[in-house]
Amino acid sequence: MVQEISNVLYAKFGNRVNRRSGEDISSQVKRMKLAVEPQTINVALVWDTKGYDANIVYVINPDGGDQNPIKKRSLFYVAATRAKQFLAVYSSIPEQNAPIMQDALRAVQNLERQLI
């Protein structure tokens, strides 16, 4: 899935996407140590981003995969907390069937109440 996303982004943005042909994404992320360069898009797996952050983060299909629900929530938390300014979450599962999306929506609503 990550390789497919990388291919789509590379087709659209060309050399502004950090990837190497024939090298898997997690190896590349470790190699480049998530170097942040202006005008560059880094594509990575969640567990490879722990300890790093970015101004803009897109999380794709957080309810996908076959991990247990606790591990999914943990990985989603890691992914979501990488964002410094903007977080977008995309899921192919309808919201009512996606427990992680429901949890995230409740957390945002609670945060909004606290800020008001």
Automatic annotation (TrEMBL):
Alphabetical list of InterPro entries matching this protein: P-loop_NTPase (IPR027417)
Superkingdom of origin organism: Bacteria
SUPFAM superfamilies from the UniProt entry: P-loop containing nucleoside triphosphate hydrolases (SSF52540)
Name this polypeptide is given: Uncharacterized protein
Organism expressing this protein natively: Dolichospermum flos-aquae CCAP 1403/13F
